Amino acid sequence: MNVNIDPRTVGAQVRMRMPLMTPLEARVVNTITGRKDLDLTTSIREVADDAGVSDAMVVKIAKKLGFNGYRDFRAALVSYRESDVASLHAEISPEDSSADIVKKVFNTAMQAIEETMSILDMAAFDRAADLLYAARNRDFYGLGGSAQIARDVSHKFLRIGLRSNIYDDTHMMMMSASLLGPDDVVVAVSHSGSTMAVIEAVTLARQNGARSIALTNYAGSPLAELADVTLCSTAQGSPLLGENAAARIAQLSIMDAVFVGVAQRDFALAETQLSKTMQSVDAKRKP
């Protein structure tokens, strides 16, 4: 493994490529990553026998995950497991006390933020901030929990005088996309990156010349492949919480950073607009 690789990125690298795996390949990955005794002496034969596949299949899967081969994959996993961030996540069990539950939930969120920060593409981040700052219209698409992330960042943009629209209905997204043009930007939020309603709307918006930004948990997802700019979160799920809970925290953090990046492009104006919007609601607060 390249010694310059940040160990925090390894778990994210594996998780983000899992949707690209066949069921057999995914089972093999889960078998390998589930081994508690994995170390630098674990042979490919041991791993292959444990997973019920050939040595060649293990090598193929390691390369599909972005590693040079089995040894590189093994070294990366060992390094990741020794990192502070890997130790944050722990599964919730029926025997957990309230203190255990709080600690585990908070630690999972912190892990998602740490790993997301380690994989965040800074060139994509800057491009997203540039597009949102210069846009005529900023339309946000998302369903369910993803729509709540869109609402949060739209609220922040309004505070500095940048207006945006949020669409969480399939028909409304398509109507919005049909009216967009080259000066407009779509921000599509989808944890899986495979929500058809969002993909169809972004496709139409792009056909009309609009630029698109994807916020998703999977770099290889259809939405990520479609968008002009992709911002990726990463989160390790649990049977009870799923991935979405921790990923939502990471995605909110990404968009908070994007908001600050947009504001920074005209900091003086942002401060002026922020003062205006804050004063407008001061009278609504109880003394």
SSE layout and pairings?
Layout: H1 8-17, H2 23-33, H3 44-51, H4 55-64, H5 70-82, H6 98-119, H7 122-134, E1 138-141, H8 145-159, E2 165-167, H9 170-179, E3 185-189, H10 196-207, E4 211-216, H11 222-226, E5 229-232, H12 244-264, H13 267-282
Parallel strand pairs: 1-2, 1-3, 3-4, 4-5
Helix pairs in contact: 1-5, 1-6, 2-3, 6-12, 7-12, 8-12, 9-10
Domain HTH rpiR-type: 8-84
Protein name: HTH-type transcriptional regulator RpiR
GO molecular function, one term: carbohydrate derivative binding
Characterization of this structure:
It is a single chain. The protein is α/β, with parallel strands linked by helices. The protein folds into 2 domains: 8-83, Winged helix-like DNA-binding domain superfamily/Winged helix DNA-binding domain (Arc Repressor Mutant, subunit A, Orthogonal Bundle); 119-282, Glucose-6-phosphate isomerase like protein, domain 1 (Rossmann fold, 3-Layer(aba) Sandwich). Helices cover 58% and strands 8% of the residues. The chain contains 13 helices and 5 strands. The chain has helices at 8-17, 23-33, 44-51, 55-64, 70-82, 98-119, 122-134, 145-159, 170-179, 196-207, 222-226, 244-264, 267-282, and strands at residues 138-141, 165-167, 185-189, 211-216, 229-232. Strands 2-1-3-4-5 form a 5-stranded parallel β-sheet, sandwiched between helices. Helix 11 (222-226) links the parallel strand 4 and strand 5 (229-232). The longest helix is centred in the middle third of the chain and has 22 residues, at 98-119. It is globular. The mean pLDDT is 89.
